[in-house]
Design brief:
182 residues, elongated, Porin
Amino acid sequence: MIKVNTATIALCFLGALPMAAVAQSSQFGPDQGEREFSISGTGSSDQNVDSGSFGVTGDLGWYLKNDLVTGIRQSVNYASIEGEGIEDDFWNGSTRGYLNYQFLDQRARPFVGGSLGGIYGDGVNDSAFAGLETGMKYYVQTKTYFIARVEYQFFFDNADDASDSFQDDGAWAYSVGLGYNF
């Protein structure tokens, strides 16, 4: 018969405490009040997908709730255009605020949202834009995720212009990157 003393039982429980702490902290994703930062490679094209550019986008967001994030996003893009007597290089940027709602509380978190901001630089008409977006965050660690996002942005110079611009003056923006919550 095996005798087990109190000291052995106490050591087993003490040894299990770190595993219990790890198990409790294995929740993926943010908590209300946390922030997020992500950096993504981006591409864009006109609504007919026959010309485009590439660039970098950075996001800084704040979680109003575990599933609702608002923030600011900055993009810098480069395009080299060739064709029909045109050969030129263009730089442009865009700055916008965003609000996204995330579904689920698992590793995979689809989201939908919108943005409002401005675009400026070479080769674009400096103007305001509004956008609808959707995408997916996939947590590879408890606070680190891959992100993929697609945005449809429509451009306008004033409020009267906005309703016509959705169909006539829009562009797609795509991004894939990495982010973390802190």
